[in-house]
């Protein structure tokens, strides 16, 4: 992963940990993240044509490629715009286009950095957008130095509703699921033998 990729500071992570888990799903596709960024930056509604062109531009596709333009438009109408509307983030219709009606659960620009710098961004975003993993990253970022598996499990069990309330169960989940997933996308280092975790700032 590029050393320029990041998810923002602790305030950005903190803003995510209070969001219901089901609302993360809408952010798990690069097109929807970019759509939210385009709409957040725009003044008022954006037509389907404008949104299609913006996505083509941001993905370095040729706006004059009629076939690709048609594919993007179909994806917008039948997938991404309805999903964002179902999450109560936008209002849209085919005639008037779309506009934001609610603040996204995370600033889209905090995620578009990943889109620009990491070729495995879909995997990365999918790995990170989980309430326990977001709380874990926040805990790691707020406290410098290595952390033990036991102390992280206790803090998560106490402070994160999405984590198991039992610290031993939280420890097992961290060891087998959350820590390996975040280590795979270079957001932390996990020494399995020593049980030590260290945050990888980017």
UniProtKB/TrEMBL annotation:
Highest taxon of the lineage: Archaea
Domain DUF7344: 24-97, 133-198
Pfam families: DUF7344 (PF24035)
Matches recorded under InterPro entries: DUF7344 (IPR055768), WH-like_DNA-bd_sf (IPR036388)
Name of the protein in question: DUF7344 domain-containing protein
